[in-house]
Amino acid sequence: MKNRWQILVVDDEEVMCESLAAWLREDGYAVDTAASGHEAIDKTRQRDYAIYFVDLKMPGGMDGIETMMQVRRIRPDASIIIITAYATVDTAITAMKEGAQEYIVKPCNPEEISLLVSRIVKVKNLQRENTILRKKLSRQYVVQDIVTKNARMRDILALCQEVASLRSTVLIQGESGTGKEMIARVIHNCGDRAQKPMISVSCAALAETLLESELFGYEKGAFTGAAELKRGKFELADGGTIFLDEIGDIPAKLQVDLLRVLQERSFYRVGGSQEVRVDVRVIAASHVNLQQAVSEGKFREDLYYRLNVIEIRIPPLRERREDVPLLARYFLERLSHELGKDVREISEGALKLLMDYNWPGNVRELENSIERAIVTCKNDELTEDSFAFLAMNGNAGRAWTPPAGMSLQEMEKVLIVSTLQRTNGNIKESAGILGIDRSTLYEKIKRYEIQR
Amino acid sequence: MKYLYVAAAPEVSLEDQRMVSGFLKNEFGLPVREMEIPALDFAYDGTRRQYSSVAVLEMLARLSPAGAAKLLAVTDRDLFVPVLTFVYGQAQLNGRVGVFSLARLRQEFYGFAPDRAVLVERAAKEALHETGHLFGLVHCAERTCAMSLATNIRQIDSKQPAFCAPCRARLTRTKGVLA
After folding, report:
1. Using the 8-state DSSP alphabet, how is residue A270 labeled?
2. Each residue's pLDDT tens digit in chain A (452 positions)?
3. Contact at 8 Å (CB) between B158 and B122?
4. Which of B82, B152, B169 sits opposite A107 (nearest CB)?
5. Contact A28, A6 (CB under 8 A)
6. Fewer Cβ close by (within 10 Å): the C or N end of chain B?
7. Shortest Cα distance from B179 to chain A (angstroms)?
8. How far away is chain B from the Cα of A3, in angstroms, using its nearest Cα?
9. What residues of B are in contact with residue A379 (Cβ under 8 Å)?
């Protein structure tokens, strides 16, 4: 994909500047121009250009070499090509020594420029792919990797940074596919444990006995088949973070063991009698409402409060629809590159359809849908037709029918309760969502006897 | 009604102008009109002994009739842009005017005997290519597509005088042409 890389052409001769820019635009690149070194530096501060064509001789006290040196200070990864009509060996050597990627003499053969740019773009694509793969491999997510403009998500990210270096336990709640593990990784990577391991365990995936030995390890001979000592996830995460996903599915006996680890920071391996001490930060996540599980007697109250020191509730995608276009474009760019397809655009109609869809599988479902649409796309743009399969899922629209026989007042109460739950009881935010002022909301809470 | 104009410089024969009009009429499905433009002497660069396509485009923008959706000029003069040694043609991307030259499409330019059939095929490809730019198409990665980038005559010869399916779809979808 070409249009990801932006090019800046810097030349004091307008006709030179514009003709090269026009030629590169015909080749599909996004190109800007600058008439002087100073303008180039200003533009460099505003935009992330990947490739620069800089004329060597420019008036105004800032020639091509000086411009290149300043650009390199701001954008060390940029590729700079020096162009000149007055080639000498000395200027060529100076340009290359100061970091120019290429030095070309104008007028140059179209083939030369075309090959040069495509070679640079090829290297940049490989570098980018390498960065993505490394990040994927180590899953070193940071705040900047979370794509959002939603106010609640921004608050969550700010909270992640605030609590990153604390040892306090974090409980992340949110529906499946909202990115609970990604948030956990952001917390881990932003804190002073970032250089230590973060170990993930899905509590729902394993049977009780397996989960116990998985978490705490076992001694040699602890049970048939325990041929040698095995360290558990808590030990492997020593100094770092353990992420306990789907904590709501953990069996009752293990809830007690886990409570002990949280209180004492120590445990026994299965079949062992020697206490193992660890320094581990626990981040737990659940797609079920743990408070409700506590009230139903399915989850220990003391464990819940131990886990719930810092609570993060990730809103489902349908409550942050403004992020859908951002995420769709992000996934389109990333996945089309990974899948080797040249799909560049997504139509307004397709974005509207995605905005209207309810996304029961949240961000993960959106990512999978974009991938499916790219794979089946016959040209370079995703349109409404590319997402026809969503309509078959049966909840394409926002249409919702209230239960029959419900009074207006009952309806109002349900709406207020659910809004308060979503905002964690924040009156100002709830009143804003409901479109009423705070005093009216207080009055209704009192009238309907709503517990906050 | 908007027309696709094919303008010919004085050195271009009526036969060659008709040939280009014919390609565009068949391919784009828009009504085509023909016009003449003045000689390109004003764009001549004595040092390079070539004609500036930038200057030609400026003139075309001034001469473009009100009813012209797009205007493509044909010349037999060798064209250049300042930073490159030559160009086969140049068009405003998603704009109104473009120009291409027959000079480097002729077999004689490379020291061979004239070949009308070869010239006709190459001109068809260039006419489609520059008009494609006028309709907003950028270079295509498919080497046989008329919109693929050609920086030498071999690359022009390995193209087809037609748009590939995705480029056709783009033109139909965004511009309502080629329907």
Report:
1. B
2. 455 689 999 999 888 888 899 889 888 888 999 999 999 999 999 888 999 999 988 887 888 999 999 999 998 889 999 998 877 788 888 888 888 888 888 888 888 888 899 899 989 888 877 877 776 665 666 666 788 888 899 999 999 989 998 889 999 999 999 989 989 998 998 888 888 889 999 888 777 778 888 899 998 887 877 788 888 899 999 999 999 999 988 888 889 989 998 898 889 898 888 888 999 999 999 998 888 889 888 899 999 999 999 999 999 999 999 899 989 988 898 888 888 888 888 998 899 999 989 999 999 999 999 999 999 888 888 998 899 888 776 555 554 556 667 788 888 888 898 888 777 788 888 888 888 988 899 999 988 888 76
3. no
4. B82
5. no
6. N
7. 17
8. 11
9. 165-166, 169-170
Nearest to A301 by CA among A255, A346, A333: A255
CB contact under 8 A, A114 and B151: yes
- Structure-block tokens of residue A272: 């062992």
3-state helix, strand, coil in chain B (%, to 5): 40, 20, 40
**Alpha-helix runs per DSSP H in A75-172:** 89-97, 110-138, 151-163
Q: Could you count the other beta carbons within 10 Å of the beta carbon of residue A91?
A: 18
- Give the global pTM: 0.60
Chain A interface with B: residues with Cβ < 8 Å: 13, 15-16, 18-20, 22-23, 25-28, 83, 106-111, 113-114, 342, 378-381
Of A23, A113, A379, the CB nearest to B170: A379
Give residue A396's Cα distance to chain centre: 25
Bridge partners (DSSP) of residue A30 are A6
Cα distance between residue B9 and residue A389, in whole Å: 54
With beta carbons under 8 A apart, name residues in chain B contacting A25. 93, 138
What domains are there in chain A, each with its CATH number?
Answer: 6-135 (3.40.50.2300), 162-313 (3.40.50.300), 318-391 (1.10.8.60), 408-447 (1.10.10.60)
Backbone torsions φ then ψ of B152, nearest 5 degrees: -150, 170
B152 vs A contacts (CB less than 8 Å): 111
Q: Is B142 a catalytic residue?
A: no
Distances in Å between the alpha carbon of A160 and those of A156, A186, A188, A196, A311?
Answer: 6, 7, 9, 18, 10
Å from A54 to nearest chain B CA?
A: 12
Q: Closest chain A residue to B58 measured between Cα atoms?
A: A15
User: How far, in Å, CA of A322 to CA of A337, rounded?
Assistant: 24
Residues B125 and B128: their CA atoms lie apart, in Å, by: 5
Cβ distance B151 to A108 less than 8 Å, yes or no, reads no
Residues of A in contact with B170 (CB under 8 A): 379-381
Q: Which residues, in sequence order, are bridge partners of residue A54?
A: A10, A82
Q: All domains of chain B, ordered by start, with CATH? A: 3-175 (3.40.390.10)
CB contact under 8 A, B81 and A20: yes
Residue of B nearest to A378 (CA): B166
d(CA B164, CA A434): 53
Whole-number Å distance between alpha carbons of A401 and B165: 45
CA dist., res. A244 & res. A227, Å (int): 27
Is residue A198 classed as helix, strand or coil in its secondary structure? Answer: strand
Q: Find chain B residues with C-beta within 8 A of A20's C-beta.
A: 81, 83-84
Distance, in Å, from the CA atom of A269 to the CA atom of A267, rounded to the nearest integer, reads 7
For strands A381-382 and A345-346, give the pairing.
parallel
